[in-house]
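step 3/5: co-fold with PBG
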Amino acid sequence: MSTPFPPAPFPLARPRRLRASPWIRRLVAETTLTPADLVWPLIVHDGPEDEQPVPSMPGVSRLSPKAAARAAVRARDLGIPAVALFPNVSTVAKDGVGTGATDPDGLVPDCIRAIKDAAPEVGVITDVALDCYTDHGHDGVLEDGRILNDATLERLAEQAFIHAHAGADIVAPSDMMDGRIQAVREALEANSFQDTLILSYAAKYASAFYGPYRDAVGSARALTGDKKTYQMDFANSDEALKEVAMDLAEGADMVMVKPGLLYLDIVQRVAETFRVPTFAYQVSGEYAMMKAAIANGWLDEDRAILESLTAFKRAGGAAVLTYFAPRAAELLGG
Ligand code: PBG
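step 4/5: write tokens
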């Protein structure tokens, strides 16, 4: 961005005057971060423990439906508007088409209902993708080593319907199949869920930074190969605009860029080009990286959290999904 007029030269201009004390810094801050900008991703599980720590994500635990409901109450009390659910299923057999993803009495529908009982004011976002339910760990239906796009769409549309029916407020397809927003939107319309929001993971890159998450949800063990035939190439930026344009045309209400900090240029381009709510996801690898440095005393936790999250807002992000959400909200006085 170019400045509308050239700044006065020194000594007429002394930019430090605007930084001289906390009150003036607060007064002229261009960006503010509040608990209302945060979404708290919750890893949920069907195991016996109420809370089961995830080793690669210190401070994060897999939660039972009851514990997820408690977390939602905490989110509400901290002023965090929404939680996002990601399942680790161990009691359901995984198969090639992810049958467990469309069980109306499965883990995710259970969690949605438990959360809506305990804290109905908190928005519930669900992940629409098959990877947590397939024996190959991919987000789509796999046949002869290929991910079948159109066969996957039918599964995703059904999964989104199951989530909406259980009470999800926002369904968030994170699979990167072509045409899935249209398929999901049509399924919602056809079943009287026209008010269900769609948050599209529109620009989702094939990233090394999802590693700890795949441990957390248990999809890493199974994953054969990589996700490069559907998730985006991290060399590309124009392609992100094409994906976003298509998803908006297909009926997405909001779009997401993922991962986060390494992709702030994409957040900024998408937000400026489309002027729609653009979410960003500070993913598990970013969280783990910061936590490791914090544990070593190399980074100050609270300052690093607020600086990293403010960067998303500065880039034009409407909201940030972050595993730091509860701590950030505490720091922000939620
Ligand atoms: C897949 C999904 C992934 C994440 C959220 N949904 C990982 C993947 O694509 O393999 C990653 C979240 C994170 O790393 O925090 N449906």
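step 5/5: annotate
The chain has one domain: 32-331.
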